[in-house]
Amino acid sequence: MNQSFRRFKDIVNIMGACAASATGVNMRLQETTGAYLRSMRDGPCDYKTERRTDMTIVMVLLLLPVTGYAQWLNYPTAGVPRLPNGQPNLTAPPPRTPEGRPDFTGLWEPDTSGGTQLSTFRTDVVFPPEWYNIGAQLKDGLPFRPWARELRDARNTENSKDSPDAKCLPMGPFLDHSNRSPRKIIQVPGLLVILYEKSFAYRQIFTDGRPLPTDPQPSFYGYSSGKWEDDALVVQTVGLRDKGWADQEGSPITEAAKVTERFRRPSFGNLEIELTVDDTKAYTAPWTVKLRHHIKLDTDLLEYVCNENEKDASHLVGK
Description:
The chain has helices spanning 3-17, 33-41, 56-62, 129-132, 146-157, 172-178; strands at residues 106-110, 183-188, 191-196, 201-206, 223-229, 232-238, 244-245, 252-253, 258-267, 270-278, 287-295. It is an alpha+beta fold. The chain has a 9-stranded mixed β-barrel. Strands 7-8 form a two-stranded antiparallel sheet. Helix 1 packs parallel to helix 2. The N and C termini lie far apart (45 Å).
């Protein structure tokens, strides 16, 4: 099977499995077939808003040259521990910094397979449950206050057409934690930076001991400061925008929210983020969920600009 046919087959499989494309994902023809596949990777099948798929794109892609596929998508990741058979050893101990702390540096995506996935696109694994409902792990669900439950229900009834993702806005830490698109963590002394492919955004987590601001200007990602507790990086975040979205169904987050994240890397191939939200305006009690990610090897971020040639918004409908 030659390279061109493999890529065509991948496109047909993706589009056939996802006749309704994601809200806010541009069905644009990018410079290469590889970039187009990556743009479709994080969007298919995640919205209830019904959309048409323009199959003529497939015919256009057939005409693209094979040589256009090189964008560091297959460049080997350095420093990967290997099993005797040469395969990556995902259960090996995590790398550590010169100070002896776990190093979270790498390319990551949400995990739904117990940490056994690598970089392969799978149409049967799209988004973790927390993308739709951040409280999916909680036996009794999120402890909404009445107004917050009503707002979540109204947003959900409207097919989430006003979500940050649908509006091509930065999604914030909650949606970005559970979106299937990759994110790159860069860890240096005093700072951990997260680059999000989907939102084309970044988040700074300072580890230099600085205090949180006392009266912050609300922002999409808030203000984050972390400290180490053994092998866990404990991050406190305040200053989020009012009535933000914690999930695609529209569970609200207010500017009163205080968020605690515990980042752990139990093995080379796995990352855990324990997320605790204390938002007294929207919820009657704090709540905690654990999100898991696995490492992505031999690939990299691609430029993703939601508003480029955006033609979806005018067609989004509610109930």
